[in-house]
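Field reference: sequence -> structure
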Amino acid sequence: MPRKKTPRTINQRQKERINAIRQRRSDQITARQEENWDILKQADLGKPEEGMVIAHFGLNVEVEDSSGVGCRCAVRETAGIEPVCGDRVIWQKANSQQGVITAVIDRHSILQRPGPYRRLKTIAANIDQIFIITTSTHLNTGLIDRYLVAAEAAKIRPILLINKMDLAQDPEEIMEELAPYKTMEYPILPISATSGLGISELGSMLQEKISIFVGQSGVGKSSLVHKWVPKERAPTIGEVKESSNMGRHTTTVARLYHLPNGGSLIDSPGVREFGLHNVSRNNVATFFRDIAPYLEGCRFSNCSHKHEPGCMVLGAIEDGKIHINRLKSLHRIQESMPKNDH
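Structure field:
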């Protein structure tokens, strides 16, 4: 029987070294920020105007003005929060190539992912709809449910895209498996980036909205993005190299692209890790559209919906109002979350 691995621990000297590296990185970022500010302080700032953040990478934020021209901006501390793609901001031009963001206008939605040191990182704001991409060849309803919970928690409209339908052996069987989502009024669009199935309908759904695609690697996300954004404008979901005092490193870029027929698409590698943040074991069931209406009717307030008498959720399953697979999916998600999560 193989020996069970014990978690690695770090000693005090290693902790001090890690903290020193973090501090050095922080000092370097601060120095670069101060250098930017020294340049901007010498410039005459224009009148405050409203703009949209269309790119964020490293210390640089690109703002688009009312005429569609982009300008690299520094962020004044009084802005309160770090601007991200999709943000509406108040900013001032310093010259034709630089500006200053002074305030971030209230957001109606945000999308977050895990960041360094267990902190949440906001990668996009003011998104109207999230397209959850899966494939006919690897239909994973459990993963779909996790994305749906996260979208519901973020208060962003989710839409299911089933890509690679040209490879489906039995399209009717796939749509039958997705029937519970249709009952819950989630939009479902079968598509094929290869054959063109559903692409026209998808283009119409993107119009006049700020959208983002999410999904695991291999679902065809890049191929779909390139249907509207040429590869030279969005190479492999935008990774750029930046120079720093620590050498060269790769920085993840989030960028907003305006689509030819209206609407905008935010493209970022970080959305692969978009998941269950600010959701706990105790409240995850409230984000299941079909289960939520029955929660308050349970006899016990801490009902697990597994065996308790007077459980309205189990009763709804017996009556055929909730599909049993949905409850199993809820339990799997709960079991994957920390027990001390409140």
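Note: Residues 236-251 have pLDDT under 50 and may be disordered.
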